[in-house]
């Protein structure tokens, strides 16, 4: 019917003519948005669909916590559908069941007691038989809900309110994933490892400009509850960069040989995510019965409480790898998982990359922390207001008691209190409500104390709201607590395809000696390059270069280690050891400027092994002018190819030394005049990466720092001079002082022994490497160096030719002992993580 004819047949009054096409379009769009926003897609902030959010909120309202008794599932379901989710009880119970299944959820949010189904596809028992309560992890998603941290919406009949989003500390969207089909769109977010996601969040808090590639070094890919193996990384890379990608997931398969029967068995111990074990076995049996898969004699399901174990016995003479490849192709032992990072952002569906999802969660936590602080400040001010009135009351207690006694009633008493003492209605009522016991001396003192305490709390909260850095610190602390309390190891292994294998996978994992010269030439050599010599030997030729070039650094590292390279102007670069060219004792090596983007005019001052675990570790940096700075090592985890600023260097100063420390030892600084200062690391508070630092020692204009070491009471201090003299001194002779002092004498200097050039903390088990400016290298045992007093001049350590002088001293591990694996050493002789099995041949003395 045409619009004109339609209008002629419509009666006037409350009925308005509409075009049927427009009405259908409008209604369908309303329905579509309702499904998209209110049912099928998760919110990017808490990772929840409305039904899951209502489940947790209802359990919270029932005090159904992890440390309380279980409640019948039917009891909780009834509360949910009666108050918040007016849909079928089977839909609500189905959502609860999935939240309790450890093979569906990487981190289950519901603790179930009873039959909640199995990986074989068995259904859960009816809700009248099962019991539930919240997991401790899910309680973290509701923390601070009562502190006005989120907005509230009316429920379906406007009789109650429910949270629009949960104030979660847990990035649930990524750790548990989500899947759903809306109108014209779908989401499929895989679960991830909580430890990796929390470390990714910490990285973005410290370095908001970090790239997705930086994040992928921390978050290599999804982590499924059923483990399995992700085959290939291209799908992960695509999903993390674009929001869409496809993964290939394989079962974990081992081959066992039965020597008695002389045949192999294929054993399946882990399944791809969401694969039904019973149907998988049925599929394999079906292929065998249809003769499409030959070579299999028997299939058994030996799974138990300890885990999955499906055994496929092969016929005699069958090759296991051939059968396995056929199984991958024809059965769900290999499945595809299509990733779509689609979620609700500000009320609209949006596809996000991995970094955007993490940033939205950080923004959510920032809003929660701010709103929580505002609420706590409001409550603190309300409490302060009452305590202010009580304080006035206890200060005028006799007069107020007399005033109340003479009043005809409470209303008159309140009015007179407000009039005489300029109190508010709330304050006056609080005074009238005081119990007699609060008039005792101790209670009066407690009121004054409470008032002073609440005023300090108000100042603290106002400081937080006025300082963005303090808010960020709170978020960082909360993330670290979540990481510490709930973090676990990755389950799913990621294996690169043949065309995705990185160079590192092809490099042999071994310890090597790395050297760098005055002119910046670097090389790596085998561990047996140098032999141990007696103290006072002449050494061996160390480098085949010009007479004016010489070694300035020598240390042990693993080929797979990452090295930090610090310049004299405070820049830091990173480089893999396997990228350093290999050479021998007489080769020159390659200039460091060809391996890193070294700025013009800068020189390398320190190279150290970067530890893999940065939690609780610090970098202690010292400059030639006596400035020290302690920074958290986590600020240096991801270094760009162009480098990062490690410390702000002022004109006339240069970076001297960098050490990795746990922040609990002492710092030792030695000046060129032979004075040493020792102070606790705690005297230097942690500072930001680009800050300048604080004064470590008082220097005169012609003095500079020649060495910094991190020590405890278990070592001795080795001092070495430019003329090859040295001595060991007990660390107890260097008393602890306050940071910034002038220090005490470390060694008596004269024309014979020259200037002091370096200090080292040593033990009898250490070996020493001494390098001269003519390229001579001697390796000697520390046990052969005399233990002498603090003010002595030392003994000869190396015979020098005329005009020759010592320029570098490095400590290495005793070659007669097993090499101990130590992370983060900033000096010679400390092997890197992962090495240590290969030791040099027994040393020979000359």
TrEMBL record:
Its main location: cytoplasm. The keyword Transport does not apply. One of its GO terms (molecular function) is DNA negative supercoiling activity. It holds the Pfam family DNA_gyraseA_C. One of its GO terms (cellular component) is chromosome. Residues 41-506 form the Topo IIA-type catalytic domain. It is an enzyme of class 5 (isomerase). Transmembrane segments: none annotated. Its EC number is 5.6.2.2. The active site is at 129 (o-(5'-phospho-dna)-tyrosine intermediate). Keywords: ATP-binding, Cytoplasm, DNA-binding, Isomerase, Nucleotide-binding, Topoisomerase. It catalyses: ATP-dependent breakage, passage and rejoining of double-stranded DNA. It is found in: Cytoplasm. Heterotetramer composed of ParC and ParE. Few gyrases are as efficient as E.coli at forming negative supercoils. Not all organisms have 2 type II topoisomerases; in organisms with a single type II topoisomerase this enzyme also has to decatenate newly replicated chromosomes. Belongs to the type II topoisomerase GyrA/ParC subunit family. HAMAP family: GyrA. A type II topoisomerase that negatively supercoils closed circular double-stranded (ds) DNA in an ATP-dependent manner to modulate DNA topology and maintain chromosomes in an underwound state. Negative supercoiling favors strand separation, and DNA replication, transcription, recombination and repair, all of which involve strand separation. Also able to catalyze the interconversion of other topological isomers of dsDNA rings, including catenanes and knotted rings. Type II topoisomerases break and join 2 DNA strands simultaneously in an ATP-dependent manner. This is DNA gyrase subunit A. It comes from Bacteriovorax stolpii.
């Amino acid at each position: 019917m045409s619009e004109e004819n339609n209008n002629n047949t419509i009666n006037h009054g409350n009925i308005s003519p509409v075009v049927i096409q427009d009405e259908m379009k409008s209604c369908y769009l309303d329905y579509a948005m309702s499904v998209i926003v209110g049912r099928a897609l998760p919110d990017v902030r808490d990772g929840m669909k409305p039904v899951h959010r209502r489940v947790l909120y209802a359990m919270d309202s029932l005090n159904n916590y992890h440390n309380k008794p279980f409640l019948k599932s039917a009891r909780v379901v009834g509360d949910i559908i009666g108050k918040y989710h007016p849909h079928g009880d089977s839909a609500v119970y189905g959502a609860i069941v999935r939240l309790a299944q450890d093979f569906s959820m990487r981190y289950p949010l519901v603790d179930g007691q009873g039959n909640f189904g199995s990986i074989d596809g068995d259904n859960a028992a009816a809700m009248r038989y099962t019991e539930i309560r919240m997991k401790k992890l899910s309680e973290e998603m509701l923390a601070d809900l009562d502190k006005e941290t989120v907005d509230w919406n009316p429920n379906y009949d406007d009789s109650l309110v429910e949270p629009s989003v949960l104030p979660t500390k847990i990035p649930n969207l990524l750790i548990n994933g989500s899947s759903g089909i809306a109108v014209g769109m779908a989401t499929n977010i895989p679960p991830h490892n909580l430890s990796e996601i929390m470390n990714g969040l910490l990285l973005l808090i410290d370095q908001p400009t970090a790239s997705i590639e930086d994040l992928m070094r921390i978050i290599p890919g999804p982590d499924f509850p059923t483990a399995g193996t992700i085959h290939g990384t291209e799908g992960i890379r695509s999903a993390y960069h674009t929001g869409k990608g496809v993964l290939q997931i394989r079962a974990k398969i081992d081959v066992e040989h039965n020597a008695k029967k002389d045949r192999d068995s294929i054993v399946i111990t882990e399944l791809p995510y969401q694969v039904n074990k019973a149907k998988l076995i049925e599929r394999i049996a079906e292929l065998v019965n249809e003769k499409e898969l030959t070579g299999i004699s028997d299939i058994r399901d030996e799974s138990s409480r300890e885990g999955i174990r499906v055994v496929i016995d092969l016929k005699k003479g069958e090759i296991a790898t051939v059968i396995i490849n056929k199984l991958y192709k024809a059965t769900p032992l290999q499945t595809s998982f299509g990733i779509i990072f689609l979620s609700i952002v500000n009320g609209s569906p949006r596809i996000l990359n991995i970094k955007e999802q993490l940033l939205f969660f950080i923004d959510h936590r920032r809003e929660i922390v701010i709103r929580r602080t505002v609420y706590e400040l409001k409550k603190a001010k309300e409490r302060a207001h009452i305590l202010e009135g009580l304080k006035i009351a206890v200060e005028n207690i006799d007069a107020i008691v007399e005033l109340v006694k003479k009043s005809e009633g409470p209303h008159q008493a309140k009015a007179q209190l407000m009039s005489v003492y300029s109190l508010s209605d709330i304050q006056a009522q609080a005074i009238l409500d005081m119990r007699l016991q609060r008039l005792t001396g101790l209670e009066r003192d407690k009121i004054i104390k409470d008032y002073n305490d609440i005023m300090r709390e108000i100042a603290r909260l106002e400081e937080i709201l006025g300082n963005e850095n303090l808010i960020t610190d709170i978020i960082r602390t909360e993330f670290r607590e979540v990481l510490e309390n709930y973090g676990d190891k990755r389950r799913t292994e990621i294996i690169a395809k043949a065309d995705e294998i990185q160079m590192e996978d092809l490099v042999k994992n071994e310890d090597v000696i790395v050297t760098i010269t005055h002119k910046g030439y670097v090389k790596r050599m085998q561990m047996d390059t140098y032999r141990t010599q007696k103290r006072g030997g002449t050494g061996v030729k160390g480098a085949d270069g010009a007479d004016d070039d010489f070694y300035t650094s020598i240390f042990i590292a693993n080929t797979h280690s990452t090295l930090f390279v610090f310049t004299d102007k405070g820049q830091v670069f990173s480089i893999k050891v396997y990228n350093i060219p290999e050479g021998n004792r007489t080769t020159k090596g390659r200039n460091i400027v060809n391996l890193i983007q070294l700025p013009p005019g800068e020189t390398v001052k320190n190279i150290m092994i970067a530890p893999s675990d940065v939690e609780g570790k610090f970098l202690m940096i010292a400059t030639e002018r006596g400035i020290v700075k302690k920074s958290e090592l986590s600020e240096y985890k991801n270094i760009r190819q162009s480098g990062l600023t490690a410390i702000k260097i002022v004109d006339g100063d240069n970076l001297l030394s960098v050490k990795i420390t746990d922040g609990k030892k002492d710092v030792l600084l030695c000046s060129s005049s032979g004075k040493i200062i020792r102070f606790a690391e705690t005297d230097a508070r942690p500072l930001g990466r680009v800050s300048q630092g604080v004064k470590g020692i008082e220097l005169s204009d012609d003095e500079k720092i020649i060495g910094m070491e991190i020590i405890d009471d278990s070592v001795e201090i080795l001092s070495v001079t430019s003329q090859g003299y040295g001595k060991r001194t007990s660390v107890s002779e260097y008393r602890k002082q306050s940071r910034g002092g002038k220090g005490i004498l470390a060694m008596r200097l004269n024309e014979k022994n020259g200037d002091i050039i370096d200090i080292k903390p040593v033990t009898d088990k250490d070996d020493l490497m001494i390098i001269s400016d003519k390229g001579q290298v001697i390796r000697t045992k520390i046990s052969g160096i005399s233990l002498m007093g603090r003010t002595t001049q030392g003994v000869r350590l190396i015979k020098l030719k005329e005009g020759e002088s010592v320029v570098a001293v490095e400590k290495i591990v005793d070659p007669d002992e097993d090499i101990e694996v130590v992370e983060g050493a900033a000096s010679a002789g400390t092997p890197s993580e992962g090495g240590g099995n290969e030791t040099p041949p027994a040393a020979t003395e000359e």
